[in-house]
């Protein structure tokens, strides 16, 4: 009997999904997590009777694998990964593994910003049009868990650059790249070019029958396209220029033309998602729908009644004329820029947390124009003070969501917006960005 041992590193959503599928396919499975495993995932592994370890990686239990499935959060520099690679054991992502066991078609969406919103909107549009469709990857359930337990014809998958790094044979039937801005550069030797190349892996293995949708206004995408060989049909979208085949904006109307005599036109005021960045997200999603021949009336309806996800520009409350918005999912500078761009009033900005080598320069103009006070929420706020001391008169340090909301409440006047959009990761004070957003919402409801 040849070696049928699969080792899964990381026991979060992705790792446990991979374990479910690998076991279903008859592999001998072992799961190893260097951290503690969350109770909900431990229960699934126990129920499946899959052996696992936590808070350690035992080399002898790992280095005899035929293949390793690695969670996206584990960098290639981790000592155990180096040992695995030295032994020549193949390492793949859970997405790559899952695709081997389904004939379903995939719509894969990546980008530094907007990918969750675009993925959810695309899923919403397909489901409303009657497609048998699943939602997974970086949002919702892991792809492998869905393949193990459901039977969909289509999957809409949100893919991060980390997932793409360990995908080799995988092919997206429809690939969407929204934008490329500096993020996670610590994993790419601090080179934007490496990160961009990683994002472009979304087009790998595509053929002339497949589709690649991208933003024609994004300089980094255009730059990396020059050095990438893309075989699929390409549909760009732009808000700056007219596009023959793709999508563009003209006098506040979106035009999507894939098939010459069946153009979709829609006023941006009808879109459920407001703000310039969301015009891009809606266009990308609209092109996918048109490629799949979904009727214009159905696309219009879906784009008009879509409800955005929790923790992404989520309106929490209006209290004495002040709006409170939870954008805890903004874990990088660019997301915070988008959040500020979409708010039309003066802002009290709550930001801070674990800084991933952020360059705050791109926020300076926007902060200068719109932000009248910054409330820092994090253990170490020195870099925020240094970045914005010339642009904002008031910068206050706080160390809990409750304290941040109280301070913001006293600083805000009628007509202002209190915006939690941290530009940083959350794990200095919170479990994750959801926990941060939920604590913010509870604190607002106590006002």
Automatic annotation (TrEMBL):
E.C. number(s) listed in UniProt: 6.3.2.9
Top-level taxon of origin: Bacteria
Stretches assigned to the Mur ligase C-terminal domain: 311-424
Pathway(s) where this gene product acts: Cell wall biogenesis; peptidoglycan biosynthesis
Listed Pfam families: Mur_ligase_C, Mur_ligase_M, MurD-like_N
UniProt entry keywords in alphabetical sequence: ATP-binding, Cell cycle, Cell division, Cell shape, Cell wall biogenesis/degradation, Cytoplasm, Ligase, Nucleotide-binding, Peptidoglycan synthesis
Reaction(s) catalysed by this chain's protein: UDP-N-acetyl-alpha-D-muramoyl-L-alanine + D-glutamate + ATP = UDP-N-acetyl-alpha-D-muramoyl-L-alanyl-D-glutamate + ADP + phosphate + H(+)
Binding site for ATP: 111-117
The Mur ligase central domain, residue ranges: 109-288
Places the protein is found: Cytoplasm
GO molecular function: UDP-N-acetylmuramoylalanine-D-glutamate ligase activity
Family under the similarity heading: Belongs to the MurCDEF family.
Stated role: Cell wall formation. Catalyzes the addition of glutamate to the nucleotide precursor UDP-N-acetylmuramoyl-L-alanine (UMA).
Name of the protein in its database record: UDP-N-acetylmuramoylalanine--D-glutamate ligase
Organism expressing this protein natively: Pedobacter panaciterrae
Gene this protein is translated from: murD
């Amino acid at each position: 009997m040849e070696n049928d041992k699969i080792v899964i590193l990381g026991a979060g959503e992705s790792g446990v999904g991979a374990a479910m599928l690998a076991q279903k396919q008859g592999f001998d499975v072992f799961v190893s997590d260097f951290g503690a495993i969350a109770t909900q995932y431990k229960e699934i592994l126990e129920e499946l009777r899959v052996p696992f370890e936590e808070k350690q990686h035992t080399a002898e239990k790992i280095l005899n694998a035929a293949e390793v499935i690695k969670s996206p959060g584990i960098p290639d520099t981790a000592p155990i990964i180096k040992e695995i690679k030295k032994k020549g054991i193949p390492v793949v992502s859970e997405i790559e593994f899952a695709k081997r066991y389904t004939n379903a078609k995939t719509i894969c969406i990546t980008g530094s910003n907007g990918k969750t919103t675009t993925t959810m909107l695309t899923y919403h549009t397909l489901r409303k049009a009657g497609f048998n469709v699943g939602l997974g990857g970086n949002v919702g359930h892991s792809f492998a868990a869905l393949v193990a337990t459901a039977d969909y014809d289509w999957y809409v998958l949100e893919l991060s650059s980390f997932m793409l790094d360990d995908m080799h044979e995988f092919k997206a039937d429809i690939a969407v790249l929204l934008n490329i801005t500096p993020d996670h550069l610590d994993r790419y030797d601090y080179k934007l070019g490496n990160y961009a190349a990683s994002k472009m892996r979304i087009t790998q293995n595509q053929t002339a029958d497949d589709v690649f949708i991208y933003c024609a206004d994004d300089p980094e995408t255009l730059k990396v396209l020059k050095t990438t060989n893309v075989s699929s049909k390409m549909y760009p979208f732009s808000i700056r220029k007219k596009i023959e085949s793709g999508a563009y904006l003209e006098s506040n109307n979106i035009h999507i033309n894939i098939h010459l005599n069946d153009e979709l036109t829609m006023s941006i005021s009808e879109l459920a998602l407001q703000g310039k960045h969301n015009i891009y997200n809606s266009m990308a999603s609209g092109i996918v729908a048109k490629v799949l021949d979904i009727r214009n009336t159905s696309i219009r309806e879906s784009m008009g009644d879509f409800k955005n996800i929790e923790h992404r520009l989520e309106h929490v409350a209006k209290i004495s004329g002040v709006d409170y918005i939870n954008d805890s999912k903004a874990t990088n500078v660019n997301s915070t820029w988008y959040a500020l761009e979409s708010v039309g009033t003066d802002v009290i900005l709550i930001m801070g947390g674990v800084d991933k080598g952020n360059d705050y320069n791109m926020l300076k103009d926007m902060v200068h124009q719109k932000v009248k006070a910054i409330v820092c929420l994090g253990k170490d706020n020195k870099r925020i003070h240094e970045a914005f001391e010339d642009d904002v008169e008031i910068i206050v340090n706080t160390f809990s969501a409750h304290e941040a909301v109280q301070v913001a409440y006293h600083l805000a006047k009628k007509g202002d917006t209190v915006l939690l959009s941290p530009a940083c990761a959350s794990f200095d004070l919170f479990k994750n960005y959801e926990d941060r957003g939920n604590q913010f919402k509870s604190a607002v409801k106590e006002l």
